[in-house]
Structures are given as structure tokens and as C-alpha cells.
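for the recovery benchmark. C-alpha cells below, seq after
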């Protein structure tokens, strides 16, 4: 879905965090931020005393206890680990760690229903402020994604789109809006086919609430503008998607009808009004 996204009101993170011992820096809700040691200046230029937050260096987070994360199930299950000091910055893990008690024998949180790759992306973001593939500024009008040599340039299966959609859904569950915004921005930098877009739309409509217009509205817009062409590339899949998720079909139809209504309104507004009356036609000759 290589269209510019609408991130109005949502902060987009692109910077990495330098992981220098003793030099904690950060970005976003899930990233380390040092306390502000400065004061606020009043209007007359005098320094105003403010209560300062204690400075927390990155090394302090690395000294915190290790928490085990049991992710996935079956053959895909894996045991990951992360520092508690960073995890508690996430609302979900803050609550989960609190439930473990003050001195638990095992610091383990089970995430059996979560996708392993998505949790890995979350942890990479937690420590660095980004996740692979990162957004890079190559001088184009908008940042692009770094190239993964193992992936094709065209996402025909939808897996590249689904990667970021899964991270988006996980960030929603964990309560990290900046990671949601980052994942959503990457979706719009993937070059995909009609089949890939259908796989992406199916996941979104199955995994997000109906009122999540941030991710659903661009999908309706994408298909509303191109469905007359794209649906012929995957007509059976498009039909199945509309039947499986009627709200998808309704959203696309609403976009098309709204666009037509706006176009008709604009055309009516632009038409010059004539002051000449229409000639009345009589059925009798000479009258």
C-alpha cells in the first residue's frame, strides 16, 4: 500500500537511541528518557525552580532484573528475555510484572497467543526506538524502508504488509501509540499486489476494532480508488473478502459514494447560473 498515510495527531518515530553505557537517551513511550535537569524560565528571564525528575541512565535499565517472555505455542514457541526496567514503561507489562509480586521465584510472562516476530520487533523498538526494516531518508520526498535482500521487491503474498499490521495490533494491545504510528507508517511504504492487499485487509478487519479508522480508512480509500482495476486481478478473493467482512464492502462503497457526491456537488457549484427563462412550448401552432 504505497500511498502516503494520514498521521494527523499521531507522533511518528524515526530516530534510533544510542545505547551508550551511562548515557541514557530515548524516544517515544517505550524508549528511555532521562529526567530534565533544567529549569523553566519565566517571562522576565528569571530561572524558575521546578521539581526535577531523577536522571536515569541507560545502564540503570540494563541493571534491572531480567524478565522471561514465553512467546507463541507449539513448535513456534520461544523463550525471550528483556530488562524489567524497560518493560515496565509499557502499560501492559507494567501490570503483568506487578502481578508477579515483589520477589517472584520466576519472572516469566506467558504470551502464547502472540506472534514471535511481532514481539521481536517490539523488543527491538523498546531498546532502540526502531525495528527492522527501518525507515531511512534517501533524499526522496518521503522516507523509504531499508532493503531486505531476502524479500522480493513486490509483496505478492501480503507478508510484508502483515508484518507491520501485526506489530500495529500488538502495539495496540500493549498500549504503545508511538509504535502503532511507526508500524502504520511502514505499511504505506510497501509495494504490493492486489492479492497482497487483500491478505492485509483481511487481517486488519479481523484484528482491529470497528472504530479504528486510523488503519481501516486508508484501506477503504485504497480499494475505493482502485477496485475497478485491482478486483479483476483477484476477483474471487475480493468477493470472498466482501462476504467475509461486510464492513469492508460497506467502507469501500461508502468511500466511492462519498467521492461521487462530492464530485457532483463541486460540479453543481461550478455550473454558471443562467438568467434567461426557458421557452415555453405550446402544442398549438402559432401560439
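predicted aa per position
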Amino acid at each position: 500500500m504505497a500511498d502516503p498515510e494520514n498521521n494527523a495527531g499521531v507522533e511518528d518515530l524515526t530516530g534510533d537511541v544510542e545505547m551508550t553505557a551511562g548515557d541514557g537517551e530515548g524516544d517515544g513511550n517505550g524508549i528511555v528518557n532521562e529526567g530534565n535537569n533544567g529549569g523553566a524560565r519565566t517571562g522576565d528571564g528569571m530561572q524558575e525552580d521546578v521539581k526535577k525528575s531523577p536522571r536515569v541512565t541507560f545502564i540503570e535499565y540494563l541493571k534491572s532484573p531480567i524478565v522471561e517472555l514465553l512467546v507463541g505455542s507449539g513448535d513456534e514457541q520461544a523463550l525471550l528475555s528483556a530488562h524489567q526496567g524497560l518493560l515496565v514503561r509499557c502499560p501492559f507489562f507494567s501490570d503483568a510484572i506487578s502481578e508477579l509480586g515483589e520477589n517472584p521465584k520466576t519472572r516469566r510472562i506467558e504470551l502464547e497467543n502472540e506472534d514471535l516476530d511481532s514481539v521481536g520487533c517490539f523488543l527491538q523498538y523498546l531498546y532502540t526506538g526502531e525495528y527492522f526494516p527501518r525507515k531511512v531518508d534517501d533524499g526522496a520526498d518521503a522516507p523509504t524502508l531499508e532493503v531486505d535482500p531476502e524479500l522480493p521487491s513486490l509483496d505478492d503474498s501480503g507478508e510484508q504488509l502483515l508484518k507491520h499490521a501485526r506489530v500495529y495490533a500488538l502495539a495496540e494491545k500493549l498500549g504503545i501509540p508511538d509504535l502503532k504510528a511507526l508500524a502504520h507508517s511502514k505499511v504505506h511504504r510497501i509495494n504490493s499486489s492486489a492479492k497482497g492487499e487483500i491478505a492485509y485487509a483481511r487481517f486488519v478487519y479481523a484484528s482491529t476494532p470497528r472504530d479504528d479508522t486510523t488503519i481501516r480508512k486508508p484501506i477503504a480509500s485504497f480499494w475505493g480508488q482502485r477496485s475497478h482495476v485491482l478486483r479483476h486481478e483477484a476477483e474471487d478473493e475480493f468477493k470472498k473478502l466482501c462476504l467475509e467482512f461486510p464492513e469492508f464492502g460497506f467502507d469501500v462503497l461508502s468511500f466511492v459514494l462519498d467521492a461521487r457526491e462530492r464530485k457532483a456537488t463541486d460540479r453543481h457549484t461550478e455550473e454558471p447560473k443562467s438568467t434567461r427563462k426557458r421557452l415555453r412550448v405550446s402544442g398549438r401552432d402559432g401560439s
